[in-house]
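Student: I would love a firmer grasp of how sequence relates to backbone shape in proteins. I am handing you a single protein, as its sequence and its fold in token form. I am told such tokens are a discrete way to write the fold. I hope you can help me see how the letters and the tokens relate. Take your time, and here it is.
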Amino acid sequence: MANIDSQLLLLRRQYFQLFEPDFLAWPPAQLLRRSDAQAWLFRYLFDESRIQQLPPERYQLRVLRPLLSRIEKSIQDPEEDDISDDLMGRMGALMTQGVPTEFEAMKERAYVTFTCLPESQSGRNRHDGYDDGGGGKEPTITLLERRNLISGSRTTGHRTWEAALHLGSYLLTNSGRGLIQGKSILELGAGTGFLAILCARHLDARHVTTTDGDETVVNYLMENLASNELGTEERVTARTLWWGEELRGTWVEQECSSDPYDVVIGADITYDKVAIAALVQTLRHLFQLRPGLLVIIAGVVRNADTFQSFWDECAHSNFAVEEIPFTVKPMREQTSLFYAAAVPIKILRITSSV
């Protein structure tokens, strides 16, 4: 295809982000019945000989079934229109070799690929240049995640959550990019590393120090950094950081001296009321080291009282807090990073008023 239809690209982006099949944006019938469109779908969604980081087989099957059903229904003239042998063959191979049960799939790590385009660019048709079978020529981040796992220690860092994607969407705007470009960034509660990789690879941060309080999560985070060509500490450093502890005399103070942080970022780190006091204590220590620091934190307001308690703790510490206006788009209007919009997501700008 000389020019790729934007509806095919949209489906591809959703598919590689493991978007729930019930909510996929399917291309229209007149496009699905075309042989070149079907060939493109196989080549760039299902061809395991070309694509190294495919979604889990169970997910592929969940997408292939309704896709083939829609193609079959789109056919008007059986003598002129046909269903791709490659798509049918992939369906047969998956069914023959068997796929993990839902319970088994929940325990497995899976590749999740996020397309990191500003909304102003993500709806355009693009010329066919998808020769690598992975992220194509669109800017992407591919992570290994356990999508359904929250460990017994209440660790939630095995998947990328909605607030990280919302903050990422904001940082991809002109206003957001200006906060990151050329800056030294410290990330709190990094989880899978999505925001750190976004800042380092696609937003031109000078350096990113990304941290989490769970050593297992940090080990997985380092693996994700390496798979996104950030395996050396030249661009990104991954560290363990426990909130609430004194920072003077630690590696944090050393970094503040050698390459002072300009911006602190964090997402989905205000959901636990027990941890909020320690988080704010860490922010207080960071402001002591760097009074001019800018803190940007995004959070899903799952519990209004918990989110308010974070705001109150900040006020008690004499922080200046203001909400950055950035509206969550309904899922049907999202064209790049995809996430649920049913619950409010807020982005806060925090500075020291002392």
User: Anything to note?
Assistant: The chain has 14 helices and eleven strands.
